[in-house]
Amino acid sequence: MTTEKIERLESKIDETPNNVLPQKPLRHGRYSANLGLVELVAILLGLLYLVPFYYVVVNSFKSMAEIFTNTSALPNEWLTSNYTEAWEAMNFGRVFLNSLLITAGANIVIVIFTSMAAWKLVRTKHWVSTLIFFLFVAAMVIPFQSIMIPLVRVAGDIGLMNSHWGLIIMYLGFGSGISVFLYHGFMKSIPEEIEEAAIIDGCSTWGVFWRIVFPLLKPITVTIVILNSLWIWNDFLLPSLVLRDIELRTIPLATFYFFGQYTKQWDLALAGLVLGIVPLLVFFFGMQKHIIKGITSGSIK
Predict the structure, then answer these.
(1) 3-class secondary structure for 201-223?
(2) What's the predicted TM-score (pTM) here?
(3) Structural domains present in the chain
């Protein structure tokens, strides 16, 4: 190679930017036997968890005699009449509205109060705020059964029994711990400079929260609403203690009354159970993409 060619090659190398220099290609990992075994175990576990749903759905289309004859088999005749009879027996339209009112009302008050509480705890740099936050967290580990009887007595004394709004207030108390915990972690990822700029522009404290902070809490708010909806919609024990009138029943309570002291209407009970699950499944699958996004967003500051 001549001296002229060497100088020309060196000049081209000097003119090449560093960011376009050739890089080593990435090597993709091979599909190993261990990975295949893990995937197989995961699929089997998934099928195992789906077995109860199979029994509920399949047996909801059977007659009582066929349910007791062969529980695992598909029905010889798919009886849709179970659903119409369960709908009428439960007064499903009424109990659905009751469950919807309680779930929506509880979510609204939980989101409003716990978001404001978490914001104040995060922005107040004092040991008292830390203590209050740890009290919220500690409340999550208290079993409901340990405070069940005192709760009913206190609720009766202050007029919260046999009322949807009384039940919503109780859900606010029980749902505050996990909600404040999630909001508290997410709040730390919001820069304080945004709030300071709003205050300089003349925004009040209420305005800073509702116009600046609260819109930024959308991912974690959706997560909290989903988690609380799953819990409140399916809750049986607390409504059974608080609600006494038939017209105030929720879906779990209405389904329970298919089981009497001497008779158990499994065909109608399973159909009613499916009717109660469907709205929640539609809501969950429509909103599930926000769960991981909301939880992981608060972990990055």
Answers:
(1) CCCCHHHHHHHHHHHHCHHHHHH
(2) 0.80
(3) 104-263+277-297 (1.10.3720.10)
